[in-house]
Fold each of these.
Amino acid sequence: MAAPPDNDVLWARSLHHTHDGSPALSGVSLGVHEGEILAVHGPRGCGKTTLLHCLAGQTVPQEGEVWFDGAPVHTMSPSRRERLRLDRFAWIGPEPALVPELTAWENTALPLLLRGTPRRAAKTAALEWLERLDVGACAKRRPRALLQSQRQRVAVARALAAEPAVLFADEPTAALHSAEGAQVLRTLTAAARSHRITVVLATHDADVAALADRTVALFDGRRVNSPDTPGVEGRDTCSLSV
Ligand SMILES: Nc1ncnc2c1ncn2[C@@H]1O[C@H](COP(=O)(O)OP(=O)(O)OP(=O)(O)O)[C@@H](O)[C@H]1O
């Protein structure tokens, strides 16, 4: 088992995974540099979510290796992977998945509280991130009293407040209309860059992928070269017009 390259905070080799016998990943390898925003781009059903689940330690691939910060994730016990996800990773899905009994600020502070951050400090951080996501006025409301778009902003604030090493964002703006989605993505990418958070962003939308530093294209569970998602793109050449 060869160790990953030093400059990759996250690294996967030859991932194979099937769901009920049908292939979702067929030999995907990739590396993610520290502080990089990497887009995983491809059409629906090409394996983006399965890849992010494997990278984030939510799914153990049937074959292949995943390494984070020099440690093999694919051989960790379930409890160690759970700890890793809580301490070092954050996840934003297409739906907000908030705890209905908690207010917006309590939801945002939850990962910090679970890590043992004192309540006052966790609340301060949560309120700051809610402000930054333009939902500061919603801090004391429960999810059912919020619009879907406000709930998704709270979910983004929760992920960023945890200041994870790696933020996995799986179609994070799928439930938002395009102008609002673009604004949330700009906030997310700006915050990730200023806090040196590595981001792995799954999207079927080329405009969203263009916000990343680099794009990996998938098709039918394999990496491909795509004309609209060139292999390596510098930040300076990215379109920020969405
Ligand atoms: N739990 C599951 N059970 C059965 N098949 C699944 C399951 N999850 C994913 N699949 C199948 O595996 C393949 C890859 O799915 P995956 O969700 O990883 O792709 P995706 O690119 O994220 O798609 P989408 O954009 O629609 O979420 C698809 O053919 C999908 O139908």
Amino acid sequence: MTIVLTPYWTNGVQKLKLAPQRMPLLFSPSQWIPIRRTAVKPKRGLVPPILDESVHALRCLNQLRSKDKSIEKYIYLSALKDQDPNMFYKLCLENMSEITPVIYTPTVGDACLQYSHIYRRPEGLFVSIKDKGNIREVINNWPRIDEARISVVTDGSRILGLGDLGVNGMPISIGKLSLYIAGAGIRPQSTVPICLDLGTNTQKYLDDPLYLGLRQKRVSDKEMTEFMDEFMHEMSAAFPKLMIQFEDFSTDNAFKYLERYRNKYAVFNDDIQGTGAVVLSGFLNAAKLSSAASGQPLSSHRILFFGAGSAGVGVAQQLMSFFTLQGLSKEEARRRIWLVDSQGLVYNARGRLAEHKKYFSRDDYNGAPMTDLVEIIKHVQPTALLGLSTITGAFTPEVIQTMASINARPILFPLSNPIRLSECSFADAVQYTNGSVLFASGSPFPEQQFRGTTLYPGQGNNMYIFPGLGLAAILGRVSSVTDSMVEASSLGLADSLNDEEHAQGLLYPRIERIREISGQIAKAVIRAAQREGVDRNESLRGLNDVDLLKLIREKMWTPQ
Ligand SMILES: NC(=O)C1=CN([C@@H]2O[C@H](COP(=O)(O)OP(=O)(O)OC[C@H]3O[C@@H](n4cnc5c(N)ncnc54)[C@H](OP(=O)(O)O)[C@@H]3O)[C@@H](O)[C@H]2O)C=CC1
Ligand SMILES: CC(=O)C(=O)O
Ligand SMILES: [Mg+2]
């Protein structure tokens, strides 16, 4: 333990105090300075004579656009957020569709891959296996404990579809929280990005002299569970008002720790539940258009998942409610879903299966393993093909054409991230279905011209869900995040398409409307929490819907 000069702010004035610190001056200004600091009038002579805010926004935007490489844009925006958070979030809000792909997928994937090389300054909290037994001490170093409300926690073991990146996963926690702030007006000082360092099994990083994490293989399951139990206990003790979002844990641990903590703490897994909710929402809109074209009822849809990890199975679980909402029983809903993993079609007679695949494993097929996707499509006759496999280009022209040959409007959702791992591009989906495709991808694709018409791709990404869900958790002071709350977020999103978006055949609303949408989602989620009795903010219970929505909007932080 060392004694260091710790900066703090009082009445807009920076001061220093002597304080014991484990991590001396480890925090960037945007984390320890109250955001209102930029409102303090600078002294004469310390800024240029004419510094108009709106002109300065244009100046920042021009600087951003002058960079050729996405990673350079990421680095620029990261510095801007550190130096002038108000300007950063103002730019985000005014240019959502341009900036989201830089601070989030796909570019955040590159930022993670290169994190140890592009690293400039500390941001977020690192808790390592070496801290086991003393985790409270590390957490107590966080400079704004009382203000913390939302944390995104990753262990870096499955970052997007890029594999085990170890401590290089920190930018995913940072990026998700930037979207919480931009998308739902969570106060910046309420957010806590966390990366757990439990080692990495990626040799390239262990050999990299610049790697920022521990040089050791991942710890055993037993040691990780002991660590996680201590971490969760200390987090809830230090931050009693915090909701935790688990992000990009490898599939087995994603399911394990969600089940272990979901009834004890306010936690939610973005890859299982957030992805499930966003896909259910887009699927509800796509299925209506598909059924209108085929004349078949909504309940007759058949969904084939290519990829059966945390995301694939999480979405499959959530899509059960698509069918139960149409009046089918759970068993009937289950039978309308098929999974494919790296060994092909998932069915009981195939042999031992991972626990998370068992529920959807088919008992109506006993033949030889079926591994060819075209053959599987011909066997299943799906109306929808969803990709969560990390296999680039798995939806080949033949796969897409086969889907088009059996459906008037095939639903194709290649959802793997980042963009280079997408199962197909929007251009291919349009070309090989003759423009009939109902499309959503995990990362954004450009619109396409087809026979004189502009066709728009959807972005089926959990970024539409978690900001509103998190805002609801904070305002409703929920004790846990229930399945009904997750479903409510999905239905709230599905309902948020406006007339213009409907007319353009969109499956998701335009990202520019994210604040409005997050407000609607937050309202729906708070109502669900109230119905289930997990809300602890009694003052919201007496509000009618109009007043609740008004209050939600008033509570959103806005850059000054
Ligand atoms: N759009 C969104 O909002 C989100 C997208 N995702 C994306 O989903 C992807 C998957 O994530 P996650 O589920 O956690 O990852 P996993 O690695 O756990 O799952 C991948 C799945 O794909 C299967 N698979 C791998 N190779 C093949 C193959 N050749 N043929 C068929 N199936 C194959 C795996 O099979 P097996 O089980 O046999 O190993 C596994 O079931 C990632 O790219 C991630 O970015 C995740 C969350 C949100
Ligand atoms: C979007 C997201 O959470 C993922 O790809 O993991
Ligand atoms: Mg994720």
